[in-house]
Design brief:
The complex is a heterodimer of chains A (335) and B (221). With 335 residues, chain A is α/β, with parallel strands linked by helices. Chain A has helices at 44-51, 74-82, 99-110, 115-128, 144-156, 174-191, 202-208, 226-231, 236-245, 250-259, 278-286, 317-326; strands spanning 2-13, 16-28, 33-38, 59-64, 67-68, 84-88, 162-166, 194-199, 211-216, 219-225, 263-270, 289-300, 303-313, 330-333. Chain A has two domains: 2-244, P-loop containing nucleotide triphosphate hydrolases (Rossmann fold, 3-Layer(aba) Sandwich); 258-333, Alpha-Beta Plaits, CATH 3.30.70.260. Chain A contains twelve helices and 14 strands. In chain A, the strands form three sheets. A six-stranded mixed beta sheet of chain A has the order 6-7-8-3-9-10, with helices on both faces. In chain B, 44% of the residues are buried. Chain B has helices at 10-45, 54-69, 72-78, 80-87, 92-117, 121-129, 134-167, 176-185, 190-218. With 221 residues, chain B is mostly helical. Chain B has a single domain, classed as MetI-like fold (Orthogonal Bundle), CATH 1.10.3720. Classes of the chains: A alpha/beta (335), B mainly alpha (221). Chain A binds chain B through residues 52, 54, 74, 77-82, 84, 86, 88, 90, 92-97, 105-106, 108-110, 138-140, 158, 164, and chain B through 120, 122-123, 125-133, 136, 140-141, 144-145, 147, 218, 220-221. Chain A: It comes from Marinobacter koreensis.
Chain lengths: 335, 221
């Protein structure tokens, strides 16, 4: 478990302290995939680097499994860092080392593994990231997705309990992004590793994260389970991110809604209710007519969800609302 | 042909070439030995680097700059008392080595600093995140990653030392430069001058070619 207790970070620029992270409380549970989303400059990069103390905080406590790591001496810090893997947007592989040597590198640095142990572990990791055939290539001979796989294998070498991902898919094309995210999800499930992932793409959060924190101007403005934050965003920044990921133009949406007649509702189906043929039966029972203004059916991690914006005209509106409620559908009255 | 190169004593040219080789070889070895750690220190103590030390950097940088800004011909003369103290003579091949190193080491140190700065900061960060010590970062990541740049730096330094070594002929340093000055310049033997210059050109060409090959071999980018 990672606990931030009033952690803050500021930089000294020309004698003045410029805050990069305002005092923040945050808890990341063991074994979860925690997303941190924000625009560039929002402080998410700083936040993730505070966890392995690449950036020392200027205030507050960081507790990893109950232990305050901020006061660690250099030797303790190095031992701690071996238990925290990290992958990067631009991979940061050593160009002078082969794929196998890159993966072996953290184990060699640790100085506690025998040659045979290192060889076996490298073989195992190469197989896990499906790069066994590329063991003796140099990073420059690999594609972006392959490089990130090497990065992941390298990060896992010393069997860490936490994996930090710094915009790990931002330099990859959509298809490669998907395969890297799937690999991360598999690792999380099979190894029980805690993953902290920062990104500016809400889509990445939707696919792999359990919980998410939204950052804006050095502050966490919203935090919670992905389905809550994603389906019912409260803060304007969160809303921007959600709209952006769904290709919704906020302005256009407002104009569309103004043209529609009657009562406008936003229905959110989650899990099983997504598959129920609900709209037709509610319309028959209550006698309301509906037209669909916008809609989307997708998955949040493994949970299917649907979100429909409807305008309802005529019939018994109260009865319709009750029926939606009874079917476990979240109803939000837009107008 | 006999008449054209009548002044050229090939045995003398052979000895002089060997002397130049020895001067350049030894002074290059010492320049690298001394310049490399200085270059690494310059890099590490620099702004926003691993061991940021503004005072140490300023002092080191100042010494390097002073040695680099003194024209080599002056450095040759200024160094004479030190050379005599160190080696016992300021003449010949041995006497030329200390001023050559004084000129070559700071030059190479700057080149090392520059090539280390070109290593992606992300690689240093990644290595730090693995729990590496500063020493491990230097020897495990920085130097291997900067190796092609450092080899290119050694090549440039070697070529600079060839011309410095030739210059040392002025204060009696031996080698091809000495030959060119004593015979080609002072005795107006143009043919000797031409031959020595041609040999120096070939020497530089070979150095550059070998250097380029090595850089290519060690570049994995």
């Amino acid at each position: 478990m990672i606990v931030f207790d009033q952690v803050q970070k500021s930089y000294q620029v020309g004698g003045r302290a410029i805050p990069a992270l305002h005092p923040t409380d945050m808890t990341i549970e063991t074994g979860e995939v925690f997303g941190i989303v924000g625009h560039s400059g929002a402080g998410k990069s700083t936040l993730v680097r505070l966890i392995n103390l690449l950036e020392p905080p200027t205030g507050g406590r960081i507790l990893i499994d109950g232990e305050d790591v901020v006061g660690y001496n250099p030797a303790q810090l190095r031992a701690f860092r071996r238990k925290v893997g990290m992958i990067f947007q631009h991979f940061n592989l050593l160009s002078s080392k082969t794929v196998a040597d890159n993966i072996a590198f953290p184990m060699k640095l640790a100085g506690i593994y025998s040659k045979a142990e290192i060889r076996d572990r490298v073989d195992e990791l190469l197989a896990r990231v499906s790069l066994t055939d590329h063991a003796n290539k140099y990073p420059s001979q690999l594609s972006g997705g392959q490089k990130q796989r090497v990065g992941i294998a390298r990060a896992l070498a010393c069997r860490p309990t936490i994996l930090l991902c710094d915009e790990a898919t931002s330099a990859l094309d959509p298809q490669t992004t998907q395969s890297v995210l799937k690999l991360l999800a598999d690792i999380n499930r099979e190894l029980g590793l805690t993953i902290v992932l920062i990104t500016h793409e809400m889509d990445v959060v939707r696919r792999v994260c359990d919980r998410v924190a939204v950052m804006d101007a050095g502050e966490v403005v919203e935090m919670g389970p992905v389905s809550d934050v994603f389906l019912h965003p409260k803060h304007p920044t969160t809303r921007d991110f959600v709209f952006e990921s769904e290709n919704i133009d906020g302005q256009e949406l407002q104009e569309d809604l103004q043209k529609a007649n009657g009562r406008i509702l936003r229905l959110t189906f989650k899990g099983e209710s997504t598959y129920q043929p609900l709209l037709g039966s509610v319309a028959r029972q209550s006698g309301v007519d509906f037209s669909i203004l916008s809609g989307r059916i997708d998955h949040i991690k493994d949970t299917p969800y649907g979100q429909l914006t409807l305008s309802l005209v005529g019939g018994d509106l109260d009865l319709a609302m009750q029926a939606f409620d009874a079917a476990d559908v979240h109803v939000e009255v837009v107008r | 042909m006999e008449g054209l190169l009548s002044n050229v004593d090939w045995a003398e040219i052979g000895f002089a070439s060997w002397d130049t080789l020895v001067m350049v070889g030894l002074s290059l070895a010492f320049s690298v030995l001394i310049g490399l750690p200085i270059g690494v220190l310059l890099f590490l103590t620099g702004k926003r680097q691993l061991l940021e030390q503004p005072v140490a950097y300023a002092v080191l940088s100042f010494v390097v700059n002073v040695l680099r800004s003194v024209p080599f011909i002056i450095l040759l003369i200024v160094m004479i008392p030190f050379t005599v103290m160190l080696i016992g003579t300021s003449l010949g091949v041995a006497g030329a080595i200390p001023p050559l190193v004084a000129g070559g080491a700071p030059f190479f140190a700057r080149l090392v600093e520059t090539s280390l700065r070109e290593v992606d900061r992300g690689i240093i960060e990644a290595t730090q995140a693995m729990g590496a010590t500063v020493r491990q970062i230097i020897f495990g990541a920085l130097l291997p990653e900067a190796l092609p740049g450092i080899i290119a730096g050694i090549t440039v330094t070697a070529i600079t030392l060839v011309s410095y070594a030739a210059m040392s002929g002025v204060i009696g340093g031996g080698g091809l430069g000495d030959l060119a000055i004593r015979f080609g310049y002072q005795r107006f033997q143009t043919d000797v001058m031409v031959i020595t210059v041609a040999l120096l050109v070939i020497f530089v060409q070979v150095l550059q070619m070998v250097g380029d090959r090595l850089v290519l071999y060690f570049s994995r980018k």
